[in-house]
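Researcher: I need the complex structure. Ligand is S-adenosylmethionine. Inputs:
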Amino acid sequence: MKLVEIIEGKAKILIPDPAQFSREGKFDPAWSPVFYNPRMTFNRDVSVIAVSIISPSSVLDAMSATGIRGIRYALESNVKDEIIFNDKNPISIEIISKNVKNNGLVNSKVVKSDANSLMHQVKVEYTDLDPFGSPAPFLFAGISSLRRRGYLGVTATDLSALEGKSKTSSIRKYGASGGKLSFSREAGLRVLLAKIAREAAVQEKGIKPLVSFYNDYYYRLFVRMDDGAKKADATLEKLGTLYECEACGYSFMSQDNCIKKCPYCSGNVRRFGPAWTGELNDQEFLDKMKERIPSFSYLPNIGRASKLIESLIAENKYELYYRTDVLSSKMKINMPTMEFMINCLGNAVRTHFDPRGFKTSRSISEVRECIKAGSTNLQT
Ligand SMILES: C[S@@+](CC[C@H](N)C(=O)[O-])C[C@H]1O[C@@H](n2cnc3c(N)ncnc32)[C@H](O)[C@@H]1O
Ligand SMILES: [Zn+2]
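Model: Output:
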């Protein structure tokens, strides 16, 4: 197998030559015997910044593929001590070993194991879960691999299960049921956090989301886990249901899981859950990420990362996002521009989840007034 070298962040990594595994001039990373996806570089860049703040003493890169994540954490994220690389694919193991050596990592171990089996045997401060598709089968063991106070990083690409597009897989993977909501991208992230919270609670741990976001058809999040039955109970209190009124569009979250009618207009509501109803991000952690931006100026994506962090900071005090296209179609009027909506509402921001979306603390009647005003503006 021919290997080629690529550079990402401060790492120089050997990957199987994509040209050898192309079909009719096309290439999908999944066709390669060892997975490396350049479209996930942004995910890794933001993760490197987040892990640099955690500055863990030990790391488990549970699904390493080429080793790129763990190697980048070692070179860029202030890991204090050991990094364990793991993959069940024997060809991965050969490549990880070469990459670990070529990047001069000293305190690292390369293991070939099933991730779940390994995660039940080790204890580290930070575990990274980056599976193909759903992280659901790995969450329980991932949490059990953490020390008393530990951190979990998770990537999820199974959006149809998380957002409720595929009802059967939503139930199977996340125990989530109900209908698809217009703010489905946020709903998916909240369903994933709820699943993590429940898996943590079984192990008498509570969770605190530090940073969580959507990008390019995946979710990425970091949570802190704290030991203790009381912490677990407090976490479970943050689980509830997401609602959206079919008539007026009002969206809300509640710990009451049996609401049938909209509190504003008494219209029928759609529901989806269980979902996390707490904050998606920790303000202090986001501020630290923002402060760190200058030390990562060597990353080609740093402008995008900085914009995302700014967005998350701006969005953090608001609850669910609304969509101008959905509300104006419900009202059977033209869609106003986003700029008009933000100005009209005053207390509102765009959301990173969706270019058609905004978050606001205004009431649904004020939102509808602005949609109406913006629509008239367009017509004149
Ligand atoms: C999406 S790739 C990981 C990509 C890598 N973390 C990165 O940032 O480039 C998923 C990897 O998980 C491995 N894998 C899948 N199921 C596994 C399991 N049960 N135990 C260990 N490794 C597994 C696959 O062999 C594959 O290399
Ligand atoms: Zn309503």
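Model: Summary of the prediction. The chain is about 40% helix and 25% strand.
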